[in-house]
Amino acid sequence: MRAVPGRPEGFALVTGASRGIGAAIALALASDGWPVAINYRSDATGAERVLSEIEQRGGRAICLQADVTERGRAQELIREAEGQLGPLLVLVNNAGVRADELALNISDEQWDTVLATNLSAAFELTRQALRPMIRARFGRVINIASVVGPRANPGQANYAAAKAGLIGMTKTIAVEVARRGVTVNAIAPGLIETEMTAGLPDRLLAAIPARRAGTPEEVAACARFLASEQACYVTGSTIFVDGGLSA
Ligand code: NDP
C-alpha cells in the first residue's frame, strides 16, 4: 500500500480572514497545527481577534494587512509571511466581495472590483504560491468559490463570472501541477451566515433542501480536510458545502 506523503514544515495563508468563513478556516487550520498568516484588508480588530483566539489555543499566527487586488502585492505578502513562518504550503483564496446589480445596470466599477477581488487576486496569489509548494513537493491551494457561477443568480452576473472563472482556473492549475505533490481544489459554499449575507430575506432558506443556512465552521471543516495529508489524491475538484442547494 502506498503511504500518504507526510507534511513538511510550513504555514497556511488565508486571505480575508478577519471574519466570516476566512476566520473560521484560519482557526480550523491552526487547530491542525498549521502556523497561519491571517490576511485582512481593513478590519485589523477582527484579524487581531482571530490571532488571539489561535494563540489562546496554543497555535501560532501572524496578521498581515494587504489589499489582495493591489497589483504586485501578492509576492510581497508571501515574502513577508515566509520571513516569519517558513515556506508557504497552504493557500486559501477566500477574500471576496459582491456588488449586486442586474446586468443592464452593472457599473464598470462593480464589474472590475468583483472580478479583481474574487478571481484575479486568487490567480496572482496562486501563481506566486506554487513555487514554494513545488519546491517542497507538498502544496494545497483551496479556492473559495460559490454555488453561484455553476448556478445562475439574477443580480450577480459579475460575482457568477468571477466564481465560475475561479472553478475553471482551479481545474486547469490542478492538472498543471498534479505530478508535483500540489493539489488545487475549490469549495463552493451555498448560503452561509456571515456579514456578506446579513439581511438576506428568509424566503431564500426555503430553496435549500437542508432548510437552513450553513455556518462558517461547516465550510472550514471542508477546507481542513483539503489541506490535510489525507486529501493528497483529491485535486481539481469542487466540493459543494450547500445543504443540498446545488443538487
Ligand atoms: P465577509 O464579507 O464576511 O468577509 C470577507 C473577508 O474578505 C473580510 O475578511 C474582508 O476583509 C476580506 N476582503 C474583502 N476584500 C478584500 C481585499 N481586497 N483584500 C483582502 N481582503 C479582502 O465574507 P464571507 O466570509 O461571507 O465570504 C468569504 C468567501 O466566501 C468569499 O469569497 C465569498 O464570495 C465566499 N462565499 C460566501 C458565501 C456566503 O453565503 N457567505 C457563499 C458562497 C461563497 P476586511 O473586512 O478587512 O476588508
Task: Walk me through what this model shows.
With 247 residues, this protein is α/β, with parallel strands linked by helices. It has a single domain, classed as NAD(P)-binding Rossmann-like Domain (Rossmann fold), CATH 3.40.50. The protein is built from six helices and seven strands; from the N terminus they run E-H-E-H-E-H-E-H-E-H-E-H-E. The protein has a seven-stranded parallel sheet with strand order 3-2-1-4-5-6-7, with helices on both faces. The longest helix has 29 residues, at 108-136. It is globular and about 45 Å long. It starts with 10 loop residues before the first strand and ends in a 6-residue tail after the last strand. The model has no long low-confidence stretch (mean pLDDT 96). It binds NADPH dihydro-nicotinamide-adenine-dinucleotide phosphate.
Could you provide a short overview of the structure?
This protein has 247 residues and is of the alpha/beta class.
